[in-house]
Design a protein that fits this description.
heterodimer; A: alpha+beta; two-stranded antiparallel ribbon; 5 helices; B: alpha+beta; 25 helices; about 40% helix; about 10% strand; globular
Chain lengths: ~160, ~650
C-alpha cells in the first residue's frame, strides 16, 4: 500500500510549534494547541519532534474502533465524526499518542495530512515522505560515511 | 467571561504572598486600550502601586509578569512575556523581556498578567493550571539551579508540558542583576530575579488549555502567511536564522562598535575566534525557537574538548559573547560557552555580570584592586579561569563575589580609590554591547533609556546597517544621508524617539524586536500601520498607526514619569566620560566621541520635554491622557514651568 508519513528529523525540528499553529487555525479557526492534530514535544537541550499520526497500515485506532468511525480515505485515516461516539478507545490504542479527543465535543481528532503544517514549517523540513525513502536516505548517509572512512584508510 | 477585545484573556491574577491570598480580577478595558499589554501594563501598574519610598527588595515592591494581545495567537515571533518591578540594580523603572513558550502558556491558561506583592514566609512557587491557581511549597527547590527547578516541577506535577519561569541561586541571594529563566531563555536585565528572591518566590509554573481567539481568524492567518513569505525571502532574516545574533560579532567589530576591555577600545583582534561563523561550523548542533518563532536564535551547542566538554542548551548570544568575551579580552570560546551556561543555571544577567567583572579587571589593571581584594584571583585581561571562578562567587555572594553581586556602581562606591572613574554604567546599569562612539544613535539610546544603559528600549538599527530605504519610508528623504551614517550625530534624536515608541509597542504586543520590526527587512518592514492592522485583525481594536504610536509614546512618557517621581532628571541622562570625552582609539570610529549634549537637546525638543531639566511639561502629559500623572508630579514639584 502506498503511503506517506509526516516526518521531520528531530535535529531539524526547531520546536517552534508553527505546525501546531497552522493546524489549529486551519482546523479550528483559533489558537489552541490542545485542539491541534500535531503536537511538538521538546525534551532536554536538543530534542524536538512532533507527535502526529503515522497513517499505519494496520492501524490500531481503526481496528479497535467499536463503531468503525475511523475510515481509510486514499492514503490517510479519517475520523467520521457522524459515527464517532467519543469512547476514546482509539486514544488508548494508538502507540504514538497521536489521536486525541476534542476538548469541546469529545470526538476523536487526528491528522488527515492536509499539508498546512508542512507549508508553515520555518525550516521547511517537515515533509511527507514514503518511509522507505527515509531508509534510503539513511542508507546513503551511512554509505557515504563508510566510503570516506575507507578512502582515508586508502582501501578504496 | 468574555473580554471586549479578542486576543486578550481578559483576566489578571493578583498574588499577595504575605497573606497567602490569590485573587483574580477582570482586565480593565481602558488599560488594554491605553497601554496595549505586556510592558504597557507593567508601566501603568508600577506607576499606580509602587512609590518612591518602596525599596526594590522589600515586600511592597510589585513583581509583574505580563503578556500582550498577540502572545499566544501564533503570530510570528510573538511568544514573548515581560517581567517588571522597581529594579534592585537601578532603583528605577525596571522591565525585561523573555521569549520561549512560557508567555503563550499563560495566555492559554486564561490570563494577561500576574501581579505579585508581599513576601512569602517560606520559599514558594505559583502553580497555574487553567482556573486553578495555587501557592505551592518550594522548600525542596530553594538552592536549585534554573534547569533543575524546571525539571523538578515538571516531574512533581507529572506534566512535561508545564512551562516554568524561575530564578536561580543568584536571585535567591539577591544579586542585584539576577535573571529569570525559562527554558534557557532569559528575562535578564534589571535584576528581576532578585525581586523574586526577595519575595521568597522561586518559580511560576503554568499550564493552559484554553482557546485564544482572534477577531478575524481567516484574515489574520492569511496576513500571517503573507509576512512569513517576506521572512522566507529576506536576506537578513535568513542570515539571522542561520547564525543567530553571534553573526553580529564580526560585523560590529568591523565598525569598532564592540566593547573591548571595558570599552577601552572597540576592536577585538580575535573576533573571528568567537564569532557566529565559527560557532555554526564547530559548535552548533541545531536551531531552536519559541512558540511561533521564525528566527530561532536558540541554538544548542556542543563543546568537544575538555575541560568544558558537554552539550549546552544554547549558544551565547551576541551580547554574551561581548560581555563574557571581548569585554574581558577572553577569546577561549569553550570557556565563554561554559560561562554562559553557568550564568543561565545560576540565574545571572550575562551583560551585567560581564560588565561588572570587566570594570573589576580594569581596576586590577590600574592597581586599584589587588589580589588582596579579589580573594587571590588574578583579574588580568583574558583570564577566563578567573571569570569561571567569579560567576559562582557572585551568585552565592562569597568573598569578593559579594561585592560584585551589588553591581559595578555600588561596588565602586564601596571600594572607592578612584574606581568610579572606570564605571561603564548609566543609571547604575552596566552598558550593553554597543560603543556609542561608533554609532551615535546608540549613545543617545543608552543615555535616555528608561531602564538604564540599554539598547533595546530604542533599538536604533536603521543607521547601524546604514540602510537608506527604511529611512526614506519611515522619515522621508530629507534626513538622508546623515541619518543613515552611524558616525553622524545628526537626526539621531528622530531615530531614537521613533525607535522608543516602536519598541514600547513590541514589548506591549509581545513581539520580538529582532525579527523584522525594529529591524527593517530588506524586502519589507513591519511598522506602526502594519502593527495597527495586526492588532485590529487579532483583537478588533480599531486603531490607526498614528494612534498606536501615541500609545507607544504614552508608555515611554509614563516610564519617564515613574523615574522622575523617583528623583531622576536630565542629570541622569548621561554617559560615562569615556564615551563623551575620550575619543575612540582605533578602528572605524577612531577619533570619535558621543556628542551627547547636542543630540539630547534635539531629543528633548522632539519629545516635548523641558530641555533644561529633562522633566515632562504638564501639557505633554495631558495630551497623552496622563492627567493623573501630571497632577501627582505637580504636587511633588516635578513639573517644569
Amino acid at each position: 500500500m502506498s503511503r506517506k508519513i509526516l516526518y521531520i528529523d528531530p535535529l531539524e525540528c526547531t520546536g517552534c510549534r508553527n505546525c501546531e499553529i497552522a493546524c489549529s487555525y486551519i482546523k479550528e479557526g483559533l489558537m489552541n494547541p490542545q485542539k491541534s492534530r500535531i503536537r511538538v514535544v521538546r525534551i532536554g537541550a536538543t530534542f524536538d519532534s512532533p507527535i502526529v499520526c503515522r497513517q499505519c497500515v494496520n492501524a490500531p485506532c481503526a481496528q479497535s474502533c467499536p463503531v468503525e468511525a475511523i475510515e481509510r480515505r486514499g492514503r490517510v485515516w479519517v475520523v467520521n465524526t457522524e459515527k464517532c461516539i467519543g469512547c476514546g478507545i482509539c486514544v488508548q490504542e494508538c502507540p504514538f499518542g497521536a489521536i486525541w479527543l476534542h476538548p469541546d465535543n469529545g470526538t476523536a481528532i487526528k491528522c488527515d495530512q492536509c499539508g498546512n503544517c508542512v507549508r508553515h514549517c520555518p525550516p521547511g523540513k517537515l515533509r511527507f515522505i514514503d518511509p522507505n525513502d527515509i531508509a534510503y536516505e539513511r542508507g546513503m548517509k551511512h554509505s557515504m560515511k563508510l566510503k570516506e572512512l575507507l578512502e582515508e584508510k586508502n582501501e578504496l | 467571561m468574555s473580554f471586549k477585545y479578542r486576543g486578550y484573556a481578559g483576566e489578571i491574577i493578583r498574588v499577595d504572598l504575605t497573606n497567602n491570598i490569590v485573587t483574580k480580577q477582570p482586565l480593565d478595558v481602558k488599560l488594554a486600550e491605553n497601554f496595549i499589554g505586556g510592558a504597557g501594563f507593567i508601566t501603568k501598574i508600577l506607576w499606580d502601586e509602587v512609590s518612591p519610598e518602596t525599596d526594590p527588595l522589600s515586600p511592597e515592591n510589585r513583581l509583574i509578569f505580563a503578556v500582550g494581545p498577540l502572545c499566544g495567537t501564533g503570530w510570528p515571533v510573538s511568544c514573548r512575556f515581560e517581567v517588571g518591578a522597581k529594579s534592585p540594580l537601578t532603583g528605577i523603572y525596571g522591565d525585561s523581556s523573555c521569549c520561549g513558550h512560557w508567555g503563550p502558556e499563560l495566555k492559554f491558561a486564561g490570563y494577561d498578567a500576574i501581579v505579585f506583592q508581599g513576601k512569602a514566609s517560606k520559599p514558594v512557587y505559583l502553580w497555574i493550571n487553567d482556573n486553578s491557581v495555587r501557592i505551592m511549597d518550594a522548600g525542596d527547590l530553594w538552592g536549585k539551579t534554573t534547569g533543575e527547578t524546571e525539571e523538578i516541577i515538571r516531574r512533581d506535577l507529572g506534566d512535561h508540558r508545564i512551562q516554568v519561569a524561575s530564578c536561580g541561586p543568584a536571585g535567591e541571594n539577591l544579586v542585584r542583576y539576577a535573571s529569570i529563566i525559562s527554558q534557557r531563555r532569559a528575562a535578564a536585565r534589571c535584576g528581576l530575579g532578585a525581586v523574586m528572591g526577595s519575595k521568597n518566590l522561586k518559580a511560576v509554573a503554568v499550564r493552559g488549555s484554553k482557546d485564544v481567539k482572534t477577531e478575524n481568524p481567516k484574515e489574520f492567518y492569511e496576513f500571517m502567511k503573507e509576512i512569513i513569505e517576506v521572512y522566507r525571502n529576506d536576506f537578513y532574516i535568513l542570515d539571522r536564522i542561520k547564525f543567530g545574533t553571534p553573526i553580529l560579532v564580526e560585523l560590529m567589530n568591523e565598525i569598532s562598535r564592540w566593547p573591548v576591555k571595558n570599552f577601552q577600545t572597540g576592536v577585538f583582534p580575535y573576533a573571528k575566534e568567537i564569532g557566529g561563523e565559527r560557532i555554526r561550523k564547530e559548535y552548533r548542533i541545531k536551531d531552536r525557537g519559541g512558540f511561533g518563532c521564525w528566527a530561532t536564535c536558540e541554538k544548542p551547542v556542543q563543546v568537544k574538548n575538555q575541560p568544558y566538554a558537554g552539550i549546552y542548551a544554547k549558544q551565547p548570544e551576541y551580547e554574551t559573547l561581548s560581555a563574557l568575551g571581548a569585554r574581558l579580552w577572553i577569546r577561549d570560546l569553550d570557556a565563554i560557552i561554559y560561562a554562559n551556561e553557568l550564568c543561565d543555571e545560576l540565574g545571572l544577567d550575562t551583560i551585567s555580570t560581564g560588565g561588572t567583572i570587566s570594570w573589576a579587571m580594569e581596576c586590577y589593571e590600574r592597581g586599584i584592586l589587588t589580589k588582596e581584594d579579589t580573594d587571590g584571583l588574578e583579574l588580568t585581561w583574558g583570564n577566563h579561569e578567573a571569570l569561571l571562578e567569579l560567576i559562582p562567587k557572585i551568585a552565592y555572594r562569597k568573598g569578593f563575589g559579594a561585592i560584585l553581586a551589588e553591581g559595578s556602581f555600588r561596588a565602586a562606591q564601596k571600594i572607592g580609590r578612584g574606581s568610579e572613574k572606570y564605571l561603564m554604567t548609566v543609571k547604575k546599569m552596566e552598558i550593553a554591547a554597543q560603543d556609542g562612539r561608533a554609532q551615535k544613535s546608540m549613545g543617545l539610546a543608552h543615555a535616555v533609556a528608561s531602564r538604564g544603559a540599554d539598547h533595546l528600549k530604542a533599538f536604533p538599527l536603521v543607521d547601524e546597517l546604514g540602510r537608506e530605504e527604511p529611512i526614506k519610508a519611515r522619515f522621508g528623504e530629507k534626513y538622508l544621508p546623515e541619518m543613515a551614517q552611524p558616525l553622524s550625530p545628526k537626526y539621531k534624536a528622530y531615530e531614537v524617539k521613533d525607535g522608543e515608541e516602536l519598541c514600547a509597542l513590541c514589548d506591549s504586543l509581545s513581539l520580538c524586536k529582532s525579527s523584522g520590526t525594529c529591524l527593517p527587512l530588506y524586502t519589507g518592514q513591519i511598522y506602526f500601520e502594519d502593527m495597527a492592522k495586526i492588532l485590529k485583525l487579532a483583537t478588533g481594536m480599531r486603531v490607526s498607526g498614528e494612534e498606536l504610536r501615541r500609545a507607544g509614546e504614552r508608555i515611554v512618557n509614563l516610564q519617564r514619569a515613574f523615574n522622575i517621581r523617583e528623583g531622576l532628571s536630565k542629570n541622569d541622562d548621561t554617559l560615562p566620560d569615556r564615551f563623551t570625552k575620550i575619543p575612540a582609539p582605533e578602528g572605524a570610529a577612531k577619533g570619535h566621541v558621543v556628542e551627547l549634549e547636542k543630540m539630547l537637546d534635539e531629543y528633548y525638543g522632539l519629545r516635548g520635554w523641558d530641555q533644561k531639566t529633562g522633566l515632562i511639561p504638564g501639557k505633554k502629559l495631558e495630551e497623552l491622557g496622563l492627567d493623573y500623572v501630571a497632577e501627582e508630579l505637580k504636587r511633588l514639584g516635578k513639573i517644569p514651568f
